[in-house]
Design goal:
This protein has two domains: about 70 residues, no CATH class; about 60 residues, no CATH class. The chain is elongated, with a radius of gyration of 16 Å. β1 and β2 form a beta hairpin. By secondary structure, it is mostly helical. Strands 1-2 form a two-stranded antiparallel sheet. The protein starts with 6 loop residues before the first helix and ends with a helix.
């Protein structure tokens, strides 16, 4: 459905479906994204977070990050070392851009990267909710 459906129609629906999902879902009650996955840490993210933590960029990278199979920096461990027991992020204001955008339910990423979307739907209630509503709307 995501690959063959009317992309323009689906894109127009996403903002409303996103808002509806997040009116009932509280990320702080879940935290699955931070418990199971790592965002990519791009150079601006590393620079900003290292500065916030008053660390040298190299020290930050060495302590917290590793290169994955796609040559992207990701956290060394799961759950994310910045996730607290209360599901609050200790670097929330400076979090990586991937974290700011996740779960991409109001972006074209939802339609362009179908395998990622389906993977996210297995752990993120918001993605599952948006996809379910989207399927009802476009049938």
């Amino acid at each position: 459905m995501l690959e063959k459906g009317n992309k323009n129609k689906m894109l127009k629906l996403l903002p409303e479906l996103h808002e509806a999902a997040f009116s009932t879902i509280d990320c702080l009650e879940c935290g699955n994204c931070c418990k199971n996955y790592s965002p990519r840490f791009k150079q601006p993210d590393i620079r900003r977070i290292a500065k916030t933590l008053r660390m040298k960029e190299g020290d930050f990278t060495q302590q917290y990050l590793r290169l994955d199979e796609e040559n992207d920096y990701v956290v060394k461990q799961s759950p994310c070392p910045f996730l607290g027991a209360d599901n609050y992020c200790s670097i929330y204001e400076d979090r990586p851009s991937d974290c700011r955008r996740y779960p991409y339910t109001d972006e074209d990423v939802l339609l362009k990267r179908v395998p990622l979307t389906l993977k996210n739907a297995t752990s993120c209630p918001a993605v599952f909710t948006v996809l379910t509503a989207l399927m009802k709307e476009v049938q």
